[in-house]
Each structure stands twice: as structure tokens, then as C-alpha cells.
Design goal:
Helices cover 2% and strands 40% of the residues. The chain is globular and about 60 Å long. The chain folds into 2 domains: 82 residues, Immunoglobulin-like, CATH 2.60.40.2340; 229 residues, Sandwich (Jelly Rolls). Strands 11, 16, 17, 18, 21, 22, 24 and 25 form an 8-stranded antiparallel sheet that branches. Strands 2-3-8-7-5 form a 5-stranded mixed sheet, with no helix packed on it. It contains 1 helix and 27 strands.
Length: 358
């Protein structure tokens, strides 16, 4: 279902993991690098200078039994709490991080009440940061961004299918383009790189050239019930749509732009709501589009590609009131890019991805 294209040919042996902080002798670093707790409404705010983490929790949630779902700390450091432990966030809690050299860092964990009508961080896509390998990704920085692209899997081969696009007056957007990877890549069944933008994380440790989505951890914490999703877009499909073997298809390329609200709990994921836009029409000028969220199970009027592969939805009753825990947003210049199919030269521009509430 999550049709997002990455070009991963030949990079598996080139991408290696490394220690994120400089290491000379015993490390003195004792940072919280990432933390996720139950009922979290957005990415945690990790304030290294003040040794503090701020966690946004929806109103009405029992703060006395907040569970740590994920905790990542500095290399060689250890924490006195682990995934599965409970926090009582009615009052600030302390997680002690001990660096390799014995330095103790008492991290203060605080909660605050979530906005009832939340928006995605950097929803206007005006913030882009330069990576250590000298290309741009959406967000203020790598540590805090909720956005990802397929660029980490393509930049080693000098292919950047998603780039910032200057609309003028200090207004940036995301430009996604389906690129030709050349004859050698085509011979290995990876002829194109389609531009992509998504909420989530590109995990280089999971790169698999045969499965472009293996490196993607889709979604970001979110706890709103929007009525619609609104965005600005333009799209010009490329002239010749082909499959991964280079055969010309009897239909044109199309863009995909969609959002999924999910409830993730106890290791299970259920679909709460769906908003999906797929179009093969040329829209050369940037224009505004609104797509309604459909809450609950999709009926037979919806195309198969909009449905969860396992048909796992929240219950009919829950769909009327439950809050999501995560949102997946995806945009791609070629709808079937995950299967290395698309039209070279397809260009999708997306800006101002907003949630619309009643």
C-alpha cells in the first residue's frame, strides 16, 4: 500500500552504520538520542542543553501509566530505564543516563497537553537542512524532523529525486522527479528513481535493493482527528510510462499523495482513516486540493490500492471516537515507483500540507 520509490541499486555494501558522536577513549556522552512513549501525540522534544525531554500527550490520557516504547541513548552509555518501563508523568520523571566514563546525566521527562487540532511539524515545508553528505532534506535538522525522502538511498550514486523548490518570497516546497538511472541500473531491474516525501525515517541499516520500502519506517506520532487534508500541488507526468523491464505501458504515469491515520498498540497496527489522491492529469500550475478522510473500513467503492494489505481496521464503534497514534503521509512522482515503474520526467511539487478540522 505504501507506494514510495527509492533507488537502492548497489548501495547495500556502501552504507555502513557508525557511532554518532566522536569517540576518543572512554566516551563522556550521555544523551537521550530518541524516545517514544505510549499515547505520544508528536515527536518528543529533546533539549540537550537543559537535559530535558518534553512529551506531548492528548488531554484525558492517564498520565500515571505512560509506557516507554523506545529509548535510544548515546553509544556506550546506559540508562536506568528501558522500553516497557512505566512513567508517572503527572509530575516530571528522571531517567538517569550514565556515560561510558561514568558521568551521570539526570534527564528530566515532562509532559504537556496536546493541541486538539494538531498540524504536522514543518507542514509548510519551508525548513530544509543540509546533511553531512551535502544535500538537503526537509526539516530543521536530522534529530527533530518528522520527514524523510528516498535520497539517502540514491545520493551515493549522485541521484537526488527529491529537492527543495523555491516558489519565491522565502517560500519553499518539495519537488519530486522521476529520474533515469541509466542502462547499467536498468539491467539490474532498477531503471528509475522516483521522487518521494514521507513522514517517517529512512533506516540505512535495513537497505535491501530488492525491496525499496525495507529501509523506510513509515509514520510519526499524531493524535488529531482531521476532517480533510489540504495541500498545494502541481504535476506533469512524463511522456512514456514503463515497467521495470522497460516495456511501455498502455496507461500513463500518475502521482500519489495520501495520508493514513493509524492506531498502533500492543505490536498491532490498525487503520483508522484514509485520505488518498492519485492523478494522471497534468496540472502545470500550483493549485490547492482537499481530500476528505474516510474513517473506518473502506467500502467497495474505494480502489484496492487504498486498502490496508491485511484489511486491519479499527472496530466500527472505535472509528467514531478513537484518536490515532500515528499518521503516515506519502507523496511520490510515480505511483508504482516501489515496483520500479514510472515515466522518466514526471514532476510533482507539493507544498503546505495541512490538516483541516471542523
Amino acid at each position: 500500500m505504501k507506494k514510495i520509490i527509492l533507488y537502492l541499486f548497489g548501495v547495500c555494501s556502501l552504507v555502513t552504520s557508525c557511532i554518532g558522536e566522536e569517540y576518543f577513549g572512554q566516551s563522556s556522552f550521555g544523551n537521550i538520542k530518541a524516545i517514544t512513549v505510549s499515547n505520544q501525540a508528536s515527536n518528543a522534544q529533546i533539549l540537550n542543553d537543559s537535559i530535558k525531554v518534553l512529551v506531548e500527550i492528548p488531554a484525558g490520557v492517564d498520565l500515571s501509566t505512560i509506557r516507554i516504547e523506545n529509548l535510544e541513548v548515546s553509544s556506550f552509555a546506559r540508562a536506568d530505564k528501558n522500553a516497557g518501563d512505566l512513567l508517572d508523568l503527572n509530575t516530571p520523571q528522571i531517567i538517569n543516563i550514565t556515560a561510558e566514563d561514568g558521568t551521570l546525566y539526570p534527564w528530566r521527562i515532562e509532559s504537556f497537553v496536546a493541541n486538539e487540532n494538531p498540524q504536522l511539524d514543518n507542514f509548510d515545508l519551508n525548513l530544509w537542512y543540509k546533511t553531512s553528505t551535502d544535500y538537503f532534506e526537509p526539516g530543521a535538522d536530522a534529530a527533530s524532523t518528522i520527514w524523510g525522502t528516498g535520497n539517502p538511498g540514491t545520493q551515493i550514486l549522485n541521484k537526488l529525486a527529491t529537492t527543495p523548490f523555491d516558489l519565491g518570497n522565502d517560500n519553499l516546497a518539495a519537488k519530486m522527479e522521476t529520474l533515469d538511472n541509466g542502462p547499467i541500473a536498468g539491467a539490474f531491474g532498477t531503471p528509475i528513481s522516483a521522487g518521494s516525501l514521507f513522514t517517517g525515517v529512512f533506516n540505512s541499516d535495513n537497505i535491501d535493493p530488492s525491496d525499496p520500502e525495507a529501509a523506510i519506517e513509515f509514520g510519526t506520532p499524531f493524535a488529531g482527528r482531521p476532517e480533510k487534508i489540504r495541500f498545494k500541488f502541481s504535476y506533469v507526468p512524463g511522456p512514456e510510462n514503463k515497467d521495470k523491464d522497460g516495456n511501455v505501458l498502455n496507461f500513463g504515469d500518475a502521482c500519489d499523495i495520501y495520508a493514513l491515520l493509524e492506531v498502533r498498540a500492543g505490536g498491532n497496527t490498525e487503520r483508522l482513516a484514509t485520505a488518498w489522491f492519485r492523478s494522471d492529469m497534468t496540472a502545470a500550475e500550483l493549485s490547492e486540493k482537499e481530500i476528505p478522510f474516510t474513517y473506518g473500513e473502506l467500502d467497495s467503492s474505494f480502489p484496492d490500492y487504498t486498502r490496508p494489505a491485511d484489511e486491519a481496521y479499527v472496530s466500527r464503534d472505535s472509528a467514531n471516537f478513537v484518536l490515532p497514534t500515528h499518521i503516515i503521509f506519502v507523496a511520490s512522482s510515480s505511483f508504482d515507483g516501489a515496483n520500479f515503474a514510472g515515466a522518466i520526467g514526471s514532476v510533482l511539487i507539493v507544498d503546505d500540507v495541512e490538516m483541516v478540522y471542523e
